[in-house]
């Protein structure tokens, strides 16, 4: 199966997972060019929606991600990339970009902490 770049303005949602810990490290976007660069280099490349340019993960920080496997979802528009990370995935220096918990009530609802 090949990625379907005809959806979502030519972008694939890309979920990056650590091969050893199985932790979700980050979510980013790939276009066809970054997908091809990832395949050719064996390291992750993404498309920056804000800067409108390709970026090689770790190009400036040294925190590269060696690709171990890539799997498409059933629709071909979301990519799961398993990597061996060489350092933290998050620009904050944390291993994962997912570290901000959402509080839930005992009933499992969101705890609304906003003031009325």
From TrEMBL:
EC nos: 3.5.4.19
GO cellular component terms attached to this protein's record: cytoplasm
Membrane-spanning segments: none
Domain Phosphoribosyl-AMP cyclohydrolase: 26-99
Highest taxon of source: Bacteria
Signal peptide: none
Record key words, sorted: Amino-acid biosynthesis, Cytoplasm, Histidine biosynthesis, Hydrolase, Magnesium, Metal-binding, Zinc
Similarity comment text for this entry: In the C-terminal section; belongs to the PRA-PH family.
Summary of the function given for this chain in its UniProt record: Catalyzes the hydrolysis of the adenine ring of phosphoribosyl-AMP.
Subunit field text: Homodimer.
Protein name per Swiss-Prot or TrEMBL: Phosphoribosyl-AMP cyclohydrolase
Organism: Limosilactobacillus mucosae LM1
